[in-house]
Amino acid sequence: MIQLIKGFKDVLPGEIEVWQTIERAAKETFENFGFQEIRLPIVEKSELFSRSIGDTTDIVEKEMYTFEDGRRGHVTLRPEATASVVRSYIQHKMYAKDPVRKFYTIGPMFRRERPQKGRYRQFYQIDAEVFGIDSPYLDAQLIFMLASLLERLKAKDVKAHINSLGCPCCRPNFQKALKELLDAKKEHLCENCLRRSEKNPLRVLDCKVPACREAVVGAPSILDHLCDDCSEHFDTVKRVLTENGVEYEVNKNLVRGLDYYTRTAFEVLTTSLGAQNAVAGGGRYDGLVKALGGPEVPAIGFAIGFDRLAEIVAMQQTIEANGPTLYIAPLGEKATEAAAHWTMQLAARGISCETDFGGRSLKSHMKRADKLKAAHVLMVGDDELEKGMATLRNMTTRDQRDLPLDGLVETLAEQFK
Ligand code: HAM
Q1: Residues with CB under 6 A from ligand 1
Q2: What is the pLDDT of residues 343-355, one digit of tens each?
Q3: Ligand 1: distance of its center to the CA of 340 in Å?
Q4: Could you give the CA distance from residue 380 to residue 148 in angstroms, rounded to a whole number?
């Protein structure tokens, strides 16, 4: 038997109800905050990701699914959505009419990471991006929006962690100070960090290897190196979050695994999922639109790890599929044909309706209706068909009443709408 590939998974009925609940809540929440949906291709030119996420990141260095596509050169299964949203914003000159745009997109992403619980090679993100606003109020509003979605989904044990990564004006000073410390601790760093300390020293702060963690204890804080503008920006973000009741923690070592960030960076961490504890991550990326060939437009966004959020929600509450509103239990051949007709007509009118064509006994029909969690059962045999009557049972109250078959579809459609 052919099995699915490790790191990939099926989301089956039983689990999908949680996914649907999350997706509905996300769409509603985002739309309340003025976001529009955007759908983008899964495959893009590889260069889009190397230029935006950064050549020295784990994602670009070792995790991308890249292949040659004839004349198109190298193409990649998107490892994240931000680069594509920016590409689309620039390509369609969306900034021309109004640079302020708010988008969300939901879909699969691909990273060739080592699979483990909460870490997949195909995973899903709920991604939100805003262009054209540099105000710190927006940073706070976006984190608030994320927190309010999580609250709406009753997700517990989640908390926002925030930091500022500065801007091209102040970050180099911090990088220099950090590099000095890393040079002094070279012999304690893992091989990856030795390389990172040359090209991208900030990433060392994020290393999970215990010796590297130890080495950066007492490292300079980026927050002490922010320029006045970045510092004021971050203070406002924190103040507005506090004023609006968002719980957060400042984490000076939060650096994110992608290179495009400037100023506010944040993650929502959970204590419910073990090692893969980031449920969402994001931040400002004021330089990316320009770096990818667009005008100078500030931007900020985040992505929720859909799989991880679904795991948390499923762990913390039970969400089950609704059963059909009506199950029609026909007894006899003619009644079965009539049931087929009524089921089609009712379902087409928006009433969820099920039947069974297998010639079951009444007892067996009732068992099936129970299993499907039907709210009502319509019982009709060939005899009743001749008399023009059927019996409707409410499966919760067990009340029963007779219904004339004349105008049955209209009567039921009216009753259940
Ligand atoms: P990221 O932190 O790489 O950011 O991913 C966001 C979230 O996607 C993570 O917090 C995690 O929940 C989920 N995730 C990432 N990798 C995996 C995986 N292998 N398996 C399961 N879940 C995973 C970004 O992707 C940025 N594009 C976010 C952003 C949007 N920044 C600005 N705008």
Answers
A1: 80-82, 111, 113, 119-120, 123, 125, 127, 129, 257-258, 278-283, 285, 301-303, 305, 307-308
A2: 999 999 999 999 9
A3: 47
A4: 49
Q: What domains, with CATH codes, occur in the chain?
A: 16-170+226-316 (3.30.930.10), 326-416 (3.40.50.800)
pTM: 0.94
Q: Whose CA is nearest to atom 15 of ligand 1?
A: 305
pLDDT digits (tens, 9 = 90+) for 128-176: 999 999 999 999 999 999 999 999 999 999 999 999 999 999 999 999 9
Cα angle for residues 162, 164, 169 (degrees, 5° grid)? 170
What is the pLDDT, as a whole number, of residue 72?
83
Q: What is the 3-state secondary structure (H, E, C) of 165-217?
A: CCCCCCHHHHHHHHHHHHHHCHHHCCHHHHHHHHHCHHHHHHCCCHHHHHHCC
Q: How confident is the model at residue 105 (pLDDT cuts 50, 70, 90)?
A: very high
Q: Candidates 258, 264, 268, 289: which one to mutate for ligand 1, based on the most atoms within 8 Å of Cβ?
A: 258
What is the token pair recorded at 128? 């939100």
pLDDT (0 to 100) of residue 336: 97
| Contacts with 345 (C-beta within 8 Å, 6 or more apart), sequence order | 409
354 contacts 321 by C-beta, under 8 angstroms: no
* Residue 77 near residue 110, CB atoms below 8 Å: yes
The distance of Cα 287 from the centroid of its chain, to the nearest Å, equals 25
Give me the numbers of helices (H) and strands (E) for the chain, helices first please: 15, 16
H-state helical runs in 331-401: 333-348, 362-371, 382-387
Cα distance between residue 120 and residue 126, in whole Å: 15
pLDDT beyond 90 at 199: no
